[in-house]
Write a structure and sequence with these properties.
single chain; alpha/beta; Aminopeptidase; 6-stranded mixed sheet; two-stranded antiparallel ribbon; 35% helix; binds zinc ion
């Protein structure tokens, strides 16, 4: 599904969300691929080990979606500001064929990532405290990092693409006049650092269905358009693909993913 500006995706997602999650149907998120989006040209980037201290750094980690979004369609279908347009508050996210939800995956990876970064002295704030609630909306997820004047923000997701496709990609904000101008360039550097570290640390290939060399540039995501701090999304893999799903269901692999993301953020914060 082409979810340009999300105007269709959000509205159709929630009505049968409980069934969708339990049946493992594909559910598009705010991060659903917008295949008409501009493409970014990646560049080779060296990566540093997770060395030294992150004391004084403020990092916001945004675990995509929430565990009970599917029970609250009125709340998550409500339109919120997403840049120069409005978009649904949030969506349910996708799931593996066996019913492991994107919301559970993102919260687990975010928790592991926060632990790794706090161990290096960073102040880390998650945009939701558990996987048992609804929301917050995409504009609030950005506002949390803005209020903290975070040094960097990362939104963790997993994709729901056709089952024959796989791999990860990092989504970086395109230029949206009046919104993303100040964050486009630093977010692009962040995207390269996260991409490099994630591939190195997890062995995941670049997505074979979207973006270019693991990078996609988008102007339709409220979570990016409303951010005043450097921010990217990562789609860690395709939950609808058996190979990627098996990885994401593995706690050991999720730890590797979190460690890789910590390394990527560390590289960025040390530039
Ligand atoms: Zn998502």
């Amino acid at each position: 599904m082409v979810a340009r500006r999300g105007l269709c995706a959000a509205a159709v997602v929630v009505s049968s969300a409980t069934a969708a999650v339990t049946a493992g149907a594909v559910v598009a998120g705010e991060d659903a691929p917008a295949r008409s989006a501009a493409r970014g040209a990646p560049a080779a980037t060296p990566v540093a080990a997770l060395a030294g201290s992150l004391a004084g750094k403020v990092i916001v980690i945004d675990p995509g979606h929430n565990g009970l979004n599917h029970r609250h369609p009125k709340i998550i279908n409500r339109k919120v500001k997403a840049g120069p347009f409005r978009k649904a508050c949030d969506t349910t996210g996708t799931s593996t064929g066996s019913g492991y939800t994107e919301a559970a995956y993102t919260f687990d990876v975010a928790t592991r990532l926060a632990r790794a970064l706090r161990a290096k002295g960073a102040k880390v704030v998650l945009t939701r405290p558990n996987n048992k609630g609804v929301g917050p909306c995409i504009d609030e997820r950005a506002a949390i990092a803005n209020r903290l004047r975070a040094d960097v923000a990362l939104s963790v997701h997993a994709d729901g693409a056709p089952s024959g496709r796989r791999g990860f990609h990092v989504i970086t904000p395109g230029y949206v006049k009046g919104y993303t101008g100040p964050i486009v360039k630093p977010s692009q550097r962040l995207a390269y650092d996260v991409r490099h570290a994630f591939r190195k640390g997890t062995g995941q290939p670049y997505a074979d269905y979207i973006g270019r060399n693991g990078i996609d540039v988008r102007k339709d995501l409220g979570g990016l358009n409303m951010s005043k701090v450097p921010k990217v999304f990562i789609e860690c893999g395709n939950m609808r693909n058996r190979t990627d799903a098996a990885k994401m269901r593995s706690a050991a692999w999720r730890q590797r993913a979190a460690d890789a993301l910590a390394a990527g953020l560390n590289t960025y914060l040390r530039r």
